[in-house]
């Protein structure tokens, strides 16, 4: 996907353009949602080596994104408020942040170059952290190009043409796809299918496919850009073509004023939810759509955003979805069409890392903190790879345990799913879900102590001010369990308790 020539590299330009700025580089993935402040561009993930740095006026080089699907929303905000990096360079194909740039280009005519280098070139590049870097389509150099170069728009892995506007060679279009592209179903659907096709190019898909339902995460208010996008699609006449559910909003629509939410923020977040329901989405407002009656079945092809929901759907329900970025979700809802690739295909659901958990013969002392702690730790080990976990067969993990495992896993890993041997539906045996070439890792319970200390870094003597429950939303069983624990007890006045519902 790239070639090395002294201090110059030729990669694949998934979004074309020219830029130059100081290189800001790291060999660790970065989640833009919760990791970057969209109004200032500061990296606020205090566990990341670039913490405290600003993206504005830099060329950002990271292996890829990670964590929440809402990273595309943060990317869009940065672009529209002038705080985005001048260009982004990845080590591998990356869809969440790239999609944010594509949306800005398609809908608002603003963009930055997005380039993918091969591993060797990327590793060489990040050693030049702090130096001036020049980007010209797919050409990256420490020196200004002597002339405008035509970057590689051919992905050597897939053979697809990758131009800023979708060159349709390489993707087989259905009759419906062609009608949508012509604008037969309106401007919103026309723009939406262009976005879907551009992402299909990036993902290496050669055709689109029908899906039965969409879960939209783009209804989370990250700033004015998210509202502007939803209202523009609605005003263009956008209507969803398939069952579409909505993620949690940023405010309680009925009580945000009583809760003291800032008026400007509250009105904008409320209007964002309304824009999506105006387009026909159901006002479900949950980050746990797998708890709805419309939850998909084993093998069902769906298009979900919201990282914990994606991981649960793929892993626990056995449904099939990519980890769709915010805004690609509504694009699929408006067209009913999704790229046929990624975890939609069985071959892309195999695990490439096997994590064997040792020493669980005696489970005495394990409590509700164990599944999310292990999920987070497995996420740090797997990074972008799908893991299969062995050694948990005797724990009797509940669906709530799996929800907690998956939610923590999804905060740190960019993988769309996991398998647990003897627990999740596809992992009837290790051999059923493991790829031919896989990495084997043994984990002892003692290995989790460092992870625990990292996640619980506050001094033990520091008083607790706030307890937040239901992230993701509680199941009925968890609500009942909480009620039983609280029965006959009184909360102390110095501690606030927040329960999203």
TrEMBL record:
InterPro entries: PMDh-L-like_dom (IPR007506), PMDh-S-like_dom (IPR002840). Gene3D superfamilies: Phosphohistidine domain. SUPFAM superfamilies: LeuD/IlvD-like (SSF52016). Residues 171-497 form the Phosphomevalonate dehydratase large subunit-like domain. Keywords: Iron, Lyase. Coiled coil: none annotated. One of its GO terms (molecular function) is lyase activity. Residues 30-115 form the Phosphomevalonate dehydratase small subunit-like domain. Pfam families: AcnX (PF04412), AcnX_swivel_put (PF01989). PANTHER family: DUF521 DOMAIN PROTEIN (AFU_ORTHOLOGUE AFUA_6G00490). This is DUF521 domain-containing protein.
